[in-house]
Amino acid sequence: MNALVVAPLLIPLATLVATLFARPWPRAVAALSLAGALALTGAGLALVALAAQGGILASQAGGWAAPYGITLVIDRLSAAMVAITGIVGSATIVFALARDEDPARGRDFHALVHGLLVGVCGAFITGDVFNLYVWFEVLLVGSFALLVLGGGRRRLAGTVVYVVLNLVATMMFLLAAGLLYGASGSLNMALLAQAFAAGEVPVTAHAAVVLMLTAFSIKAALFPVFGWLPASYHVAWTPVSALFAGLLTKVGVYALIRLVTLFWPEAGIAHEVLLWVACATMLIGVLGAAAQVEVRRILSFHIVSQVGYMILGLALATPLALAGAVFYLIHHIVVKANLFFIGGIAARLTGSERLAAMGGLYAHAPWLAVLFAIPALSLAGIPPLSGFWAKFVLVEASLDARAWVAAGVALVTGLFTLLSMSKIWNEAFLKPHPAGEGSGSAGSGSGGDGSGGGLRSADGLRPALWAVGALAAMTVAIGLAAGPVMDYAVAAAQQLAAPAAYIDAVVRAGGN
Amino acid sequence: MEIVVALTVGVLVAIGIWMMLDRGLLRVVLGVVVLGNGVNLAVFSAGRLDGLAAAFASAAGAPALAANPLPQTLVLTAIVIGFALFVFALAVLERSWALHGHVETDRITAVAEEPAPDLPAPRDAA
């Protein structure tokens, strides 16, 4: 059982090392990398199955009991996050197999992706505040190198923004961790939660938590500190930006959910603030998207907007709202990564990601149109896709909590999201390609037909389509089988809403 | 002692933020370092500053007036991580100089806002 708890850390770490040793053989690197990501998915699903039995698994590193050892905790939420991390990681690696433009880039890519996955999984399963900081740094280092992978002026410029803003956020987190320790004498989340519940902490500890939540808000790209995200995500290589879009802000959201539910389980002033932040994030994100004219920049602003929904669930703090936030988290990671993948394929086929220079994809590649429609409609919340259930639960929870403004903002944001998606649909898919039609035949453009324009063939994109198809199938599956997924989310929310079981599991897991 | 450390932290953080508001990327990167050192010092101070003895526990027991070693180890970790990130930031700075010919932050961010370039035809890229 303990071996399974540390598996989400050991698998990507071992894969990272293996890919470094296999560096001279690109095919071996890709195979190892994919095997590692699939193994991580398997471990994640096994953890989900284990967590679904209701217990919370805690493991103390090195067998040291709670205040001294670093705690790893698996509850329903963290198990689901690990599984979804494995799925998105696998899809990213499969997608990257299709883009054989630069073999050297591909090789480094795999090691860095697994470095990132170690950090992401670590952040999901750790039960210690300082350890969370370390995992944040691990994923940050991986993400820095991934973002700049391939080089170029524009990519480097985006990286500058990303690096500086994320360093500031991490320092705020470190400072908050230090102050929290100074004020409370503990860094273990469960013991801190116990002390907070018993009212044994000075008010400065609460202040330190506020500072920490501010740092996570920057990571999660909440209003008003989201500016770095749409300024940097669109410059990365397609699989990289999809991986970032799926996972990175969600680590911030996860940390917010984890700490707020543990330290302040009762709704209070922090929830009030978060509610308004969530509304502003939803609205500003979607309005920002309306002003954009490039596929990935539109999608980047939608990340901001969608994060608002999850924070809305957290801010309402009722079990139903938390369940909505958990469901939203699961659904959103899949959908958002997939939209970035499809945006990359669309750009590859049309030769640009500026909407004005795109077009004709519906006639050229009808399968891509279908694959785009699934996540796009899901993002906007059209039944029966996964996004509908996520939004439905959150709006219902808002109405239950008499948060009329929040419910209204959530609905309006859904409407604007649909508008934004139909903008991409009209410009990239329906409108004829500006540089002369591809004369309607899918195979005519095979090989480079001049640098100027025309639609290009989808040759060599097969693995990318598998990745996109698999994620789209998952979106449909989550939508159709919403019952079991929602049951899981509700049970996860019950665990979050009653932190006593979490604390108990950590305290009992003492050394051996 | 605490007051001196608190003031030092405050001054370091202020200098760091002031430098990060500068237009030159070099000063921004150095500002991050100064800010990081201020933060490290703050974390360090969480372990009591009046501890006269090092926290070595022997069979006879721990000394009565020992500093808490945990924040010291935390800071050690943070220094190492911070150093790695600083090196990466310097590499980014160096590449920015090479590619842009200048290191002015607002001109660099303007590059990231430029319209996306058209992709080369697949044959050329392969």
Automatic annotation (TrEMBL), chain A:
Spans annotated as Disordered: 435-455
Location of the NADH:quinone oxidoreductase/Mrp antiporter transmembrane domain: 127-417
GO biological process terms on file: ATP synthesis coupled electron transport
One cellular component (GO) term of this entry: plasma membrane
Membrane topology: Multi-pass membrane protein
Ranges annotated as spanning the membrane: 6-22, 29-57, 77-97, 109-126, 132-149, 161-183, 203-229, 241-261, 273-291, 303-322, 361-382, 402-421, 464-486
UniProt xrefs under InterPro entries: CPA3_Na-H_Antiporter_D, NADH_UbQ_OxRdtase, ND/Mrp_TM
UniProt KW Lyase keyword: no
Gly residues composition bias: residue spans: 437-455
GO molecular function, one term: NADH dehydrogenase (ubiquinone) activity
PANTHER family in the record: NA(+)_H(+) ANTIPORTER SUBUNIT D1, NADH DEHYDROGENASE
Entry similarity comment: Belongs to the CPA3 antiporters (TC 2.A.63) subunit D family.
Official protein name in the record: NADH/ubiquinone/plastoquinone (Complex I)
Organism of derivation: Thauera aminoaromatica S2
TrEMBL record, chain B:
Keywords: Cell membrane, Membrane, Transmembrane, Transmembrane helix, Ubiquinone
Mitochondrion in keyword set: no
Any one Pfam family match given in the protein's UniProt record, by short name: Oxidored_q2
Keyword S-adenosyl-L-methionine among record annotations: no
One Gene Ontology cellular component annotation held by this UniProt entry: plasma membrane
Domain of life: Bacteria
Family of this protein: Belongs to the CPA3 antiporters (TC 2.A.63) subunit C family.
PANTHER family: ANTIPORTER SUBUNIT MNHC2-RELATED
Protein name: NADH-ubiquinone oxidoreductase chain 4L
Organism for this UniProt entry: Thauera aminoaromatica S2
Lineage: Bacteria, Pseudomonadati, Pseudomonadota, Betaproteobacteria, Rhodocyclales
